[in-house]
């Protein structure tokens, strides 16, 4: 069994040595330390903890007689949050940074909890509050009952002191500052570090097995927790919305008309002796789709006029009235992106206009079960 400490930190790297000390005091052995932080946080860790000459992490190990080779903690174990361009961020300054933080927390938590031989100790004591919240969310989603979430409480006068990293075996005097800004000296033997176990609810066993093969985006994971027996798809042509598992997706009239056409083909299928999900008898090839373009056009006109759109202008621009193989593929690709955005990647695979067979015998249709499709005209 391997114990992994997965922690978030900001500009106070002391939280790592304090947490490690507290775990060791409770007899919890750690074989690996993994850290989620910013670019500035990484620099602080390298300067104050991992410096080969005076790093406080190595001082702690030496002070307490711990073999450095028994714990994996090096530059490769420091995971820095990056923006969409792959550049390390200095701080979590906005919604996009927070989204990237959550993605990193989910990815690393998924990685470390995928091995049943690992136990993960989540440390939420460091960094901004949003960092703790994101790591806690990852623990809720991917954590297992034997994993643990910890917070570390340090005596207030020592907590904010930049020279205090852990209580050394031999007590030393360090300068502290009181509430009035006056300096005074106090022995480190008075420092108290308390490791607090934070209860968390593991929902991992409620996530669909297919979603535990690789890290997923948060919307997909959240949708998988919404249990409907069975989930249904509503295509509302009046409001131009798709409704699935309690979520609504607005779709432009052109794409909705094409999607509704394939949904109608699926619902009109008369086969009853096979599993609809894995049957492609109602799928159409490109020629058949073009031959039935008038049905798609009628759906489009009905939708556009019901929503008070400028129907004829949109029809001439969009190509939905003169569908060919090229613009069909373009519409199909956009519909897939709509579904991913609205319902997540896993759901989109069930709901998309899928293809089967190789060219020139490729055929298209919706794999979702016909009895779970409802259309509102």
From TrEMBL:
This is Hypothetical cytosolic protein. Residues 12-230 form the CRISPR system ring nuclease SSO2081-like domain. It comes from Syntrophus aciditrophicus (strain SB). InterPro entries: CRISPR-assoc_prot_NE0113, SSO2081-like_dom. The lineage of its organism: Bacteria, Pseudomonadati, Thermodesulfobacteriota, Syntrophia, Syntrophales.
């Amino acid at each position: 069994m391997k114990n992994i400490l997965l922690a978030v930190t900001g500009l106070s790297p002391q939280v790592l040595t304090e947490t490690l000390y507290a775990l060791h005091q409770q007899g919890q052995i750690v074989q690996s330390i993994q850290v989620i932080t910013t670019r500035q946080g990484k620099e602080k860790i390298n300067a104050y903890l991992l410096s080969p000459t005076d790093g406080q992490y190595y001082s702690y190990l030496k002070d307490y007689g711990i073999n450095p080779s028994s714990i994996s903690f090096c530059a490769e174990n420091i995971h820095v949050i990056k923006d969409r361009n792959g550049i390390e961020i200095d701080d979590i300054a906005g919604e996009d940074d927070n989204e990237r933080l959550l993605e990193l927390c989910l990815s690393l938590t998924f990685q470390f909890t995928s091995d049943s031989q690992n136990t993960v100790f989540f440390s939420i004591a460091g960094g901004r509050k949003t960092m703790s919240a994101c790591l806690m969310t990852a623990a809720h989603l991917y954590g297992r009952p034997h994993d643990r979430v910890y917070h570390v409480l340090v005596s207030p006068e020592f907590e904010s002191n930049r020279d205090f990293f852990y209580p050394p075996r031999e007590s030393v005097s360090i300068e502290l500052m009181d509430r009035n800004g006056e300096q005074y000296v106090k022995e480190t033997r008075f420092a108290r570090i308390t490791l607090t176990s934070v209860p968390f609810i593991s929902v991992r066993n409620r996530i669909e097995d297919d979603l535990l093969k690789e890290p997923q985006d948060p919307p997909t994971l959240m949708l998988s927790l919404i249990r409907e027996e069975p989930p249904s798809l509503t295509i509302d042509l009046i409001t131009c919305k798709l409704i699935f598992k309690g979520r609504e997706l607005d779709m432009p009239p052109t794409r909705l008309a094409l999607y509704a056409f394939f949904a109608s083909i699926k619902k009109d299928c008369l086969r009853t002796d096979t599993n609809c999900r894995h049957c492609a008898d109602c799928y159409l090839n490109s020629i058949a789709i073009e031959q039935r373009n008038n049905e798609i056009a009628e759906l489009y006109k009905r939708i556009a006029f019901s929503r008070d759109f400028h129907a004829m202008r949109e029809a001439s621009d969009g190509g939905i009235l003169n569908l060919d193989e090229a613009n069909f593929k373009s519409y199909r690709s956009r519909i897939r992106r709509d579904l991913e955005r609205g319902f997540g990647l896993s759901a989109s695979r069930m709901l998309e206009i899928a293809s089967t067979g190789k060219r020139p015998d490729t055929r298209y249709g919706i794999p979702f079960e016909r009895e779970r499709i409802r259309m509102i005209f």
